[in-house]
Every structure is written in C-alpha cells, then in structure tokens.
Design brief:
The protein is of the alpha+beta class. The protein folds into two domains: about 120 residues, 2,3-Dihydroxybiphenyl 1,2-Dioxygenase, domain 1 (Roll); about 140 residues, 2,3-Dihydroxybiphenyl 1,2-Dioxygenase, domain 1 (Roll). Helix content is about 20%, strand content about 40%. It contains five helices and 17 strands. The N and C termini lie far apart (about 40 Å). The relative contact order is 0.16.
C-alpha cells in the first residue's frame, strides 16, 4: 500500500519542438497538446494512459513536478500525515492540475532540494493502445529517474523513512536505488553540488525495441550519450541519448523484479558490459 509507482514527470523546456521531434521520429512516442492556464502543454503518450511526460514551454530547462501514483484516498491521507509530521507542508493541487494529470485527488510538497513532488490518486486511461513505431510495441511505460543533488541524507530520509520506499541496492560512495513495487527501482539518489535529473528512463517491450530505437537514433543523428550496455544491478539492457534539455533519456528493457526477501547490497561495478560514456561519468567507480 502507499505509493504504487512512478506516474509522470513534468519538465520546463526551452525547445518543445525539438523534444517532440525526438520523441516522435526516434522513439515512436505520440504527443498530444493540452491547455494548462495560458500555456499549451505537450503530453508524451508512453502507454495507454493520458501521459507520462509533460513538456511546459519555458525560458529555462528544469524539472517542474515529479508525480507518484498512490493506491487510495486513505493512503494519500496517511502519507500526508507522515509528511506533515516530518515537517513538510502539503498543499492541495488545483482542479485544473487534477484534470491535466487525469487524477481524482492530488497533493504536493517541496522536497529538500526544491523540487515539487506530487502524490496523485487515479490515472486516466484515454486509449486502448498508444501509437507504436513500425516493427514493434516500442515504449511500454515510464520506468525511473535518477536525481542528483545536495542534501543527500535528507533526500534518503524523505523517500525511505517518510514515503516508505525500500532500498534495493547501492554503490559506494553515494548512489542509492529505491523501489516502491517489485520493479528493481523507480528512483535513484546521488550526491551532487547542484540538483538535477541525471536521466529519465523509458521502458521498452524487448531488446528488439531497444535496438530499433538505437538504429533510429543513429539514423536521425541523435546524440548517443551512453552506448548500449547491460547494468550490473538491475540487469537492464539500454542506451542513453542526450535530450534537448541537456540531460539523458535512457531507452531500456529487461530490468529485474525483486521480492520481499531481497537483501540490499553494494553491487560493485556499474555495468556487466557496454555503457561507454561520451562524456565523463559522474557516477564512475572511484579509482583505487
């Protein structure tokens, strides 16, 4: 009970057209437009639900909201009490925000690094199937994100002690993976001087879907920031592209699930094979 899964991410972006082109041509992800106040927001349709990523036109590129789906209104009330007891101020989302999210209830608070975190009850299923690229099912949903920033211990306490996420594994000196369901992780936290999203992961149905996306990225001259590889901890096969806002999108499949008997551990090195970085890797294993 409690938080069930990662529901959606909202981003302030300076180039909505470039994002839409990347999502459509390379990843086969359909985008619809909706009104939010005076803005026209682009909604990326990763699966059969209304959207998983919202792109808000802005003069800066930055995270706008991080949305988690909660099981029931009673659980939303319980988590609200836990947040309030921990010193967070929890506010109600507006009717317009609930409508855009497809939620029946919506509350939000600000996390220790300044990001808006939303807790939503309900998801709007608006199609029987999302648009797919030729040759395969393509994306199947939103997987996880990695958040880097200061105040790492406070962020850990928020997600692990207050929101009841479970630590799956970690890598010294400061990279932690947390889950809210059987999926290996829905969020990872890392230390950094400035808060940012390191990457956002889109789930795909098979290695062939990932491979086709890789071919389209190469054909469309999309910057591949981290090459194809398999992670050591969750065993996912993926590659990464640099998106128009400057951080990474991970295109992956085949991550493992874990049970209640899972024991958190340091998984040592980051990858089984591959995942060569075009630029310096901030999470590289420390040199001995």
């Amino acid at each position: 009970m409690g938080i069930r899964k990662l529901g959606y991410v909202g981003l302030n972006v300076t180039d909505v057209e470039a994002w839409t082109d990347l999502l459509g041509r390379t990843l086969g992800i359909g985008v619809t437009l909706a009104k939010s106040g005076t803005d026209e927001v682009a909604l990326a349709e990763l699966d059969e639900f209304k959207y998983r990523v919202a792109l808000y036109p802005s003069t800066e590129d930055s995270p706008r909201e991080l949305g988690w789906i909660v099981d029931t209104p009673a659980e939303l009330d319980r988590l609200t009490r836990r947040l309030t007891d921990a010193g967070f101020t929890v506010a109600e989302g507006s009717a317009e925000e609930r409508e855009l999210r497809g939620a029946t209830s919506l509350r939000w608070f600000t996390d220790p690094v300044g990001y808006r975190v939303e807790l939503a009850v309900g998801e709007a299923k608006v199609r029987t199937a999302a648009a797919r690229p030729p040759g395969g099912p393509g994306t199947t949903g939103l997987g996880h994100f990695v958040l880097a920033g200061p105040r790492l211990q406070e962020m850990r306490e928020l997600y692990e002690s207050v929101l009841e996420f479970k630590l799956t594994d970690y890598r010294a000196p400061g990279l932690f993976f947390f889950r809210c369901n059987r999926t290996h992780h829905s969020i990872a936290l890392a230390g950094a001087e400035t808060a940012s999203i390191h990457h956002l992961e889109f789930e795909h149905g098979s290695i062939d879907d990932v491979g086709r996306a890789y071919d389209r990225a190469k054909a469309n001259d999309v910057p591949i920031s981290i090459s194809l590889g398999r992670h050591m901890n969750d065993k996912a096969i993926s590659f990464y592209v640099k998106n128009p806002s400057g951080f990474h999108l991970e295109i992956g499949c085949a991550g493992i699930e874990v049970g209640e008997d899972w024991v958190p551990h340091d998984f040592g090195r980051p990858d089984v094979w591959g995942h060569h970085h075009a630029d310096a890797n901030p999470f590289a294993a420390p040199k001995s």
